[in-house]
Every structure is written in C-alpha cells, then in structure tokens.
Amino acid sequence: MAYSTRVLPLLATLLFALACGVPSPESTGADRDGEPAGVAADRAFADLAPGPGEPFVRVLGTAQDGGLPHVACSGPRCVRARREPAFARRTAALAVVLPGVDRVLLIDAGPDLPEHLEALADVRTPAGGGVDRAPVDGVLLTHAHLGHLAGLAFFGYEAVSTRELPVRATPALAAVLRANYPWSLMLERGNLALVESPPGRPFGLGDGVTATPLRVPHRDEVGDTVAWRIEGPPEPATGERGRALLYVPDTDGWESWEPPLEERLAEVDVALLDGTFYSLDELPGRDVASIGHPLIARTVERLRSRVATGGARVLFTHLNHSNPAVDPRSDAARAIREAGMGVAWDGMEIGLGSAGR
Ligand SMILES: [Zn+2]
Ligand SMILES: [Zn+2]
C-alpha cells in the first residue's frame, strides 16, 4: 500500500513531465546556410545591462524543457547545436543576483541546473575547494513540469545535499512536492525548506528587490502555474520604483489571461514571454487552440503598436528546438527585431535599478 501511494504519484508526475514539451517535427528550410550565428546578444537591449553593484537578473537558459539540442533529436537545429556549442541553449531559467547582500536566487530548476550553476560561478562566493552545499540562496518555482522542476533533484543527498534550501512555491505546487518522491524525501531529509507563496502576494528577496508570483493559465495536470514579477529597489531620492520584469516561460495563449496581458505589461519595464513556438508552420495539422502556448508571430502582432509607443520591452524565451527564431539570422528572428522586440539569450543581464528607465 505504501509502495503504491508513493510510486504511483511519482509515475504520474514523470509522465506529465515528459509530456510537457509538445513533440513537434522540425520545420525545414528556415535555417540559413553560412557563418555560425550563435545565440547572439542583441545590441538593441544593451541599455538594460546592470551598472556596478546594481541588483540584476541573469538569464541562465532560453530553451524549452527538452533543451537545444533537444534530447534525442537529430533535426537540423539540434545537429547544429551539437556541432556549434554557441548555437546551443540551456533550458529556461533565471537568476536574481543581489550583490548588496551577496545572495543569488534561481527562478526555476530545470534539467540543465548543473550548467546553470556553472554560469553563476562569477557571482558566487567560492566554497573553498569542496562541494558548495549552498550554491544558491533559494529557488522560486513557476510550475511542476520537467524543464522547471527536475533540476531541483540535484540539491538532494546524492549530489549537492543542501541544508534547508528555501523553495518558494504556490500552495498547490507545494502540496504536489510534499506528496511525491523525490521532493517529499528531500523535504523529510531537510535538503529543502518549502515556503508557500500565494499568487499575488509580494515578498522581499533582499537588496530592496521584491518578487510576486502571478497565476497564469497553463496545462495544470499537477499543481498550478505562475509567472514571476521581479521589481528592483526604489530610487532613494525620488521614490521611483526600480525596473520591473515579468517572467512568463510557460502559459496558454494570451486569450485566456485574466487580467489581460496588456494590463500586466503596463506594470513592468521588461517582459520575457513564452516563445515556445514561432508559428503554426512548426506544427502541421494542429490548430492554434490545441497548442497550449501563444505563438510568437501572433504575440508580435498583438504587441507591435504598444512596444513601438514605449510600452514594456518584450523578449521571447523558452524556445522549442523547432522554433526558427533560435537562429538570430532566421527570417523569424528578423521579423521579431523589426517589431522592436527580441529573443533573449543565455547570459543576458537586466539591471533592476531605476537608472535608465
Ligand atoms: Zn516549459
Ligand atoms: Zn530538434
């Protein structure tokens, strides 16, 4: 009985996690021959870079749950990503870096977590020659799917073996973690310390930075899903709020958002939005309603005039391996840039101070 109550939920979780990345055939012909382009920094967003000592967000990965190269895929972009490491993208995640209090927090813990931690080596205090049992100061989760949760297992006994690492999750997601191995065992052993964060309620991360989980619609087979709003410290002289960022790696189409996307964008300066698929060309035989993600091409049209008139800056993340926009030289990436938007890149940094807004 004990076996079935523990193992069956685990199997269910794994099956749902495996289903997170909607399998899709590679679209052909979108890649261009020529020089390797890599995951290029977009100079149009250079003004977002942090100043010295300023708290900032670092983008640790920009690929959908299966990665780029996508696991077990020999499609053209995945072959290229294996051949050219600069073309590869880690699974989607962010770090919030708080130099004033020497703290680093992760948003999501996907399967590329070891590489995410490597990408933070320059902002972490070295552990002194051994395993750093506290490589980050906390994790904020969006939801329970593979690309956002699986890496949390690296904090367990077999690897980092953290001690009471604070993990923020909605009450519904926290219930899933408490009920299912391996998270339940990691909680029992004290590797993790769950902190329930109800959607809509902000809290401080340190250095004057606040975080707020915001409920978003997504395939919620287990738990629920949130976006994260991260807001920098207010300007001391004027009280003006710091730069605010909206992070939405996974969501259903914008039509099902309440309040509407535009209302959320009015509250922030920068948004990293679900860019899993560029268009229906990647998904032959599927209709928009069944995809479960907004399509970049449609999001661009929806937000074009708002961005052009000085609304929040918009970048796309969580790109599937089928998405032509993973290549900065593709027509898709060009169309995004021409609309004043961009594709986030691994290593991108966004300052959270009020300067430059
Ligand atoms: Zn995902
Ligand atoms: Zn592929």
Describe the structure.
Helix content is 22%, strand content 19%. It is of the alpha/beta class. It has a single domain (2-16, 33-351), classed as Metallo-beta-lactamase, Chain A (4-Layer Sandwich). The radius of gyration is 20 Å and the shape is globular. Bound molecules: zinc ion (2 copies).
SSE layout and pairings?
Layout: H1 2-18, E1 56-61, H2 76-83, E2 93-98, E3 103-107, H3 113-118, E4 138-140, H4 146-149, E5 165-169, H5 171-179, H6 183-189, E6 192-196, E7 203-206, E8 209-215, E9 226-231, E10 244-248, H7 261-265, E11 270-274, H8 296-308, E12 313-317, H9 331-338, E13 342-343, E14 349-351
Parallel strand pairs: 3-4, 4-5, 5-6, 10-11, 11-12, 12-13
Antiparallel strand pairs: 1-2, 1-14, 2-3, 7-8, 8-9, 9-10
The structure holds zinc ion (2 copies).
Give a nutshell description of this structure.
With 357 residues, the chain is an alpha/beta fold.
Overview features:
single chain, 357 residues, alpha/beta, Metallo-beta-lactamase, Chain A, 7-stranded mixed sheet, globular, disordered N terminus, binds zinc ion
The CATH topology label is Metallo-beta-lactamase, Chain A
Structural class: alpha/beta
- CATH second-level architecture: 4-Layer Sandwich
Largest sheet, described in full?
Answer: 7 strands, mixed
Number of domains: 1
Q: Could you say which overall geometry the principal axes of the C-alpha atoms support?
A: globular
Low-confidence regions:
1-37
Q: What integer value in Å does the Rg equal?
A: 20 Å
Total strands: 14
Q: Number of helical segments?
A: 9
- Chemical compounds bound to the protein: zinc ion
Annotated CATH homologous superfamily: Ribonuclease Z/Hydroxyacylglutathione hydrolase-like
Percent of residues in helical segments? 10-25%
Enumerate the strands of the largest sheet in spatial order, edge to edge or round the barrel. 6-5-4-3-2-1-14
Q: What value does the average pLDDT take?
A: 89
Q: What is the CA-CA span between the terminal residues? A: 58 Å
Order of helices and strands: HEHEEHEHEHHEEEEEHEHEHEE
The CATH class label is Alpha Beta
Bin the strand percentage: 15-25%
